[in-house]
Amino acid sequence: MDGVVAVSAGWRDTMAIRTDDGLWAWGNNVNSWLGDGTMEERRSPVQIMDDVAAVSVWLSHTMAITTDGGLWAWGNNERGQLGDGTDREQHSPMRIMDDVIAVSAGSGNTLAVRADGSLWFWGNDWIAQPGDEITVTIETPVTFERNQGNSHAFFAFIMLSAIRVAWFVTTIPIILLTLAALGGIVLLIRYLRRRK
To answer: pTM of the entire structure?
Structure first.
């Protein structure tokens, strides 16, 4: 593609934002990861939305911020990570909240920052602490109160983003090492066959 200004890659799917703010997607479409209303694999880019300012993809769900500050979600929702109040997957983008300036999709959860600086969380609750008063699975966005460990919430947002990067950084070498090992085994088998 040409004119791409941002990209976010998931497990088997990719999202790209072009200079005209159009959001394009391609790849595997299990659980409607792509958000095109189907579950068909896309081997070439298809446009999903207009007026997109930012996008964040994780293994099975996608979050996008539009130029008006709207937060949209689609894909797998078994842990409430879309924030629409259900655990049902969404095949096309659904508006979740307004006035959002940053978002990070994680492993079964999502974090978002609104224009007023408040941090919001939903999905699988792996960062809860005593006093947070939030449940194990949160299906709608909840905010961390400023007087209840807001620094912890901000740290969690940074950690979630770092974990996303670390997952890909550690997974790629493992895949490469596995392929190298398999290649070595193939060469060894060929060598042993020749010796016979």
So the answer is: 0.72
